Amino acid sequence: MSVARQLTLRLKLDSALSFDNFFTVEANLMAIAELRRQAAGQGEQWLYLHGPQGCSHLLQAVCNSAQAAGRMALYLPLKDVAAYSPVDVLSGLDAVDLICLDDIGAIAGKAEWEQALFNLYNLSLQTGVSILVADELPMSGLAFQLPDLISRLQSFSVLGIAPIKEEERKVALQFCAQKRGLEVSDQVADYLLSRTERDFASLLQLLDQLDGLSLQRKRKITIPLVKELLCC
């Protein structure tokens, strides 16, 4: 399989991810407002987004929103492409309006990639392309080596995404279910939260599996259906 074909398979943007189906807590309202502005071409040119959950969803929401507004936007999950040459991944970006780089820490310490990212920043100075980068860690937690790149990244405006609190998990789960067209009762939500992994990303994966099983069995999502899935 050619490099171009492999990259095409890895770089697919999830068109279903939007700002409207992202569960938003009050602490994140200002950050999301700034992301909306960047998607519309009205906000900061360079943004750094970090948080333990939700960044990948939001980067793709930014891209989808920008594309809906007629802008050319590109989403690059760097952890999926870090093994490739940046020459193959980052070529032909002159005409792009917005570049979203997810999991930027995946290329930290890779000299060729760090130089390519520094060059991309310089390109943005010439063309006006907006750059949004994200990672679970704050910038200080990333092990970049190239001093010029570090100084450029430090010029980015920083947005933090607060994680969902324990007391918000049930409401968040039911919100995400509703956005998928699913009905999850209070009893089912409580059962899921008490018997599954605690990180919310794993919970959403389980919700997608329940959706598929519900369709397959032609049954509503109930505690017996959840038990059937969990025992498999």
Automatic annotation (TrEMBL):
Instruction: Give the matching SUPFAM superfamilies.
Output: P-loop containing nucleoside triphosphate hydrolases
InterPro entries on file? Hda, Hda_lid, P-loop_NTPase
Residues of the Hda lid domain: 167-230
Gene3D superfamilies found in the cross-reference section: 1.10.8.60, P-loop containing nucleotide triphosphate hydrolases
Q: What domain of life does the UniProt record list for this protein's source?
A: Bacteria
What are the BP-aspect GO terms? DNA replication initiation; negative regulation of DNA-templated DNA replication initiation
User: Which Pfam families does the UniProt record give?
Assistant: Hda_lid (PF22688)
- PANTHER family annotated for this entry? CHROMOSOMAL REPLICATION INITIATOR PROTEIN DNAA (PTHR30050), DNAA REGULATORY INACTIVATOR HDA (PTHR30050:SF5)
Name it.
DnaA regulatory inactivator Hda
Natural source organism? Spongiibacter pelagi
